[in-house]
Design a protein that fits this description.
alpha+beta, Helix Hairpins, HSP40/DNAj peptide-binding domain, 3-stranded mixed sheet, 26% helix, elongated
Length: 349
């Protein structure tokens, strides 16, 4: 079905230029993506009304549209020829600049400033040991962020007293339009002159590098990859509000323990006689060494569980420690050891 640009803008076909412009301004304010972030329906509606205004706001294009309807563009290109109805491809970027001209400070003797720098979240990794995860700890962080420049309100541009040739349109006051027709330059509002220049404080970037220093509390039981939020620790925008800092937990490798969730695993070496005869052995834990009773005839690689000797959890019970037994064999035997082992071997037979 062919589009009706008059219906899109909600105006009568006999509406004058002022009425059409006023209708577009009202609808653009309502449906612009900046006003409706993430709203696909609003973005689609904004495209429709902008496309309609691009045609009805131009007397030559409007005359062709009134005469040929949806085939006005083909008539324009072909000197009045007529082709089948086609869907036009719209350059959304140009409609954005048209919105800038209307609503973002475009004045005939001033020009339009760029959109100010917005606040942003930042992420920083922090490596912690199992001992720190066991007890909880703190970290003092010093890091760099890009805060909005206060000298130019985060736009990268400042006003000057003397107007200069517009750098966007080269002084012509026009830029390429949506359908190959020139449109008003949004940077200078069509004057070809601008009183804007790059901010000397930030060199036109709109942001300056700032050092942040914060102390982060790392609770006991944190997990690898977990993010801890520090409100206001991110980059500050032109509106004065700052994003957040997210501290990403990185777990350092441990020489003794391997972590599996809240549980820990370790390996304890015993002599072959301890494995055979059993007895009390010393086992390392994050809280310090403890005694464990080794039963007779313990097998190589056999595991034993020590309850609540693992890591704490932010939510839930403390984990366990699993002890894997490694048997140490002698590298040489004395004559007496050899004699006794032969006696033991004969007894087994």
């Amino acid at each position: 079905m062919a589009r009706d640009y008059y219906r899109d803008l909600g105006v009568d076909r006999k509406a004058d230029e002022k009425t059409i412009k006023s209708a577009y301004r009202k609808l653009a304010r309502k449906y612009h993506p900046d006003v409706n972030p993430g709203d696909a329906a609003a973005e689609a509606k904004f495209k429709e009304i902008s496309q309609a205004y691009e045609v009805l706001g131009n007397p030559e294009k409007r005359e062709l549209y009134d005469r040929y309807g949806s085939n006005w563009e083909a008539a324009q290109q072909g000197g009045g020829g007529f082709v089948g109805d086609e869907t036009m491809q719209v350059d959304f970027g140009n409609f954005g600049s048209m919105f800038d001209q209307f609503f973002r400070g475009g004045h005939a003797d001033m020009g339009t400033r760029k959109a100010p720098v917005q606040s942003r979240d930042v992420e920083r990794p922090v490596e912690v040991t199992l001992e720190e995860i066991e007890s909880g700890t703190k970290r003092s962080l010093s890091y760099q962020v890009q805060d909005a420049c206060k000298s130019c309100d985060g736009t990268g541009q400042v006003r000057t007293r003397n107007a200069k040739t517009c750098a966007v349109c080269g002084g012509s006051g026009q830029t390429g339009g949506v359908f190959g027709m020139p449109s008003v330059c949004s940077a200078c509002a069509g004057t070809g002159k601008s009183t804007l220049e790059n901010c000397p404080t930030c060199s036109g970037r709109g942001a300056i590098q700032t050092t942040r220093k914060v102390e982060v509390k790392i609770p006991a039981g944190v997990n690898e990859g977990q993010k801890l939020r520090v409100p206001g620790g991110g980059s500050r925008g032109a509106n004065g509000r700052a994003g957040d800092l997210f501290v990403i937990i990185k777990e350092a490798a441990h020489p003794t323990f391997t972590r599996k969730g809240a549980d820990l695993e370790t390996e304890v070496e015993v002599s072959y006689l301890e494995a055979i005869l059993g007895g009390s052995i010393r086992v390392p834990t994050l809280q310090g060494p403890v005694s464990m009773n080794l039963p007779e005839c313990t097998q190589v690689g056999q595991k034993f569980r020590l309850a609540e000797k693992g890591l704490p959890q932010i939510k839930g019970a403390r984990g366990s420690l699993y002890v894997r037994i490694k048997v140490r064999l002698p590298k040489a035997l004395s004559d007496n050891e050899r004699k006794l082992l032969k006696q033991l071997s004969e007894a087994e037979k």
